[in-house]
Amino acid sequence: MAEESKSIKLHGRIILEGRIAALTGLHIGGSPGALAIGGVDLPVIRNPLDQTPYIPGSSLKGKMRSLWEKSTGARQNQSIGKGVSIHACKTKSDYDICRVCQIYGSLGQSDASFPTRILVRDVSLNKKSLEAAKTDLPYSEVKWEAAIDRVTSAATPRQIERVPAGAIFDNMQIVFNVYNAGDRARFLDVLTALALVEDDYLGGHGSRGSGRVSFQGLTLICKSTADYQNGQCQAFGNGTLGELIAADHLLGWIEQAIPVAADGGA
């Protein structure tokens, strides 16, 4: 019996651009052995070329997915080691109704394998945003914390490196691929996931005050496949996440900017 043929048609892309402002100190950990500066216990991740901190796209995408899994009540059914589990669709029927895997991707070896619709790029630090700040280390501060033994009250101090509040990370870019008609509405779920991040935290030590961020100066760019051929695009917005989500005509604008043929599915 011949194997069933598969085809994927890309109708266009929705690109969200903007910046990320650190409202409190931000800690996204790097390797202590390779990247530690000043001997801190928990260093931040830095660009090895100029030693500036940055936000890895994997950290932002992972946080978005984690919060969206919780928001939709997705089952944590896939172990990834060390007592940590995530949600992953195992069958195509599960995938077809899943609000998580259809956006963030599924396991390649499962029956529900399909390309991820979302791509999140690394976000670089705007050095000028910290020019006036007097920091302990280049573009970062050292925050002292202590773990307290609940019985003896003995304290074990440690140093945590953070990018200080007020830092701006420029050139945030999230790319969303539109494969069928339903994807245009799914992009609104991406905006909702970002809103969940704003009210939660990014990076580590969020329960102790770190990692509060704000997404600012946001612009949507839509490119249909025809736009790629003629070098055109359509832009929308330039404001806050709340303003984008509250725009009643946003979905209609996306549907007009990226048309999907009748056979494009839903």
Structure description:
Helix 2 (57-72) packs across helix 5 (181-198). The chain has 8 helices and 11 strands. It has helices spanning 32-35, 57-72, 92-96, 101-104, 181-198, 225-230, 241-246, 250-257; strands at residues 12-22, 54-55, 78-79, 85-86, 118-120, 123-125, 141-148, 155-162, 168-178, 213-224, 234-239. The protein is globular and about 65 Å long. The chain has 266 residues and is α+β, with helices and mostly antiparallel strands. Strands 1, 2, 5, 6, 9, 10 and 11 form a 7-stranded antiparallel β-sheet that branches. A two-stranded antiparallel ribbon has the order 3-4. The longest helix is centred in the last third of the chain and has 18 residues, at 181-198. The two termini are 29 Å apart. The chain has one domain.
Which tags fit this structure?
25% helix, alpha+beta, 266 residues, 11 strands, two-stranded antiparallel sheet, single chain, 8 helices, 7-stranded antiparallel β-sheet
Secondary structure: elements and pairs:
Blueprint: E1 12-22, H1 32-35, E2 54-55, H2 57-72, E3 78-79, E4 85-86, H3 92-96, H4 101-104, E5 118-120, E6 123-125, E7 141-148, E8 155-162, E9 168-178, H5 181-198, E10 213-224, H6 225-230, E11 234-239, H7 241-246, H8 250-257
Helix pairs in contact: 2-5
